[in-house]
């Protein structure tokens, strides 16, 4: 299965990229995945040019194709002005409108304060629901004080388990790459009800 991490971190090193890497590693401990990372800071100029001329550059086109062909996505943004970054939004604005349809997406964000944790619910979840993605119930927010603190690892493992389970269900019997819409719909119906799969992932007792 192909997993793509979209990171909108701007600095090097980046806590946004670090969170994406930790989520991807957790998915890899649960399922066999081929992971690719898309660093949006490296595509910033091509994204801006795509808005003005209507054509993606070579690197941006490759990133768009990778996202469209993925079996699942991890998307991570820093919090700017209580929302996702402009670079993060701009990348998804230049994707094919149907690229994320029926695709499992794990949403995540980083910020300087825990007060911004609701960005997952008021900004990221509505965006990917609009793009017709299957947004996982568990999102992961990491504030500065969360790194090394108790709790973050548990949220990462829970979200990664949800993503691995849904990717496996949707990829069963579906051709590699971006499946036709009917095939994706059949695969999705095969794993309904999703709530039962999530219940099986939660610890008992």
Characteristics of this structure?
205 residues; 7 strands; oxidoreductase activity; FMN; alpha/beta; Rossmann fold; seven-stranded mixed β-sheet
Provide structural commentary.
Pfam families: FMN_red. GO terms for molecular function: oxidoreductase activity. This is FMN reductase. The chain has 205 residues and is α/β, with parallel strands linked by helices. It has one domain (2-201): 3-Layer(aba) Sandwich (Rossmann fold). Helices cover 47% and strands 18% of the residues. The chain contains eight helices and seven strands, in the order βαβααββαβαββααα. Strands 1, 2, 3, 4, 5, 6 and 7 form a seven-stranded mixed sheet that branches. It is globular, with a radius of gyration of 16 Å.
The CATH class is identified as Alpha Beta
> Helix fraction?
40-55%
* Intertermini distance: 32 Å
CATH topology: Rossmann fold
Separate helix tally: 8
Report strand %: 15-25%
In short:
This protein is an alpha/beta fold and 205 residues long. It is built from eight helices and seven strands. Helices cover 47% and strands 18% of the residues.
Which helices and strands appear, and what pairs or packs with what?
Elements: E1 2-7, H1 15-30, E2 34-39, H2 44-53, H3 58-69, E3 72-80, E4 83-84, H4 86-93, E5 104-111, H5 119-130, E6 134-135, E7 140-143, H6 152-171, H7 181-190, H8 194-201
Parallel strand pairs: 1-2, 1-3, 3-5, 5-6, 5-7
Antiparallel strand pairs: 3-4
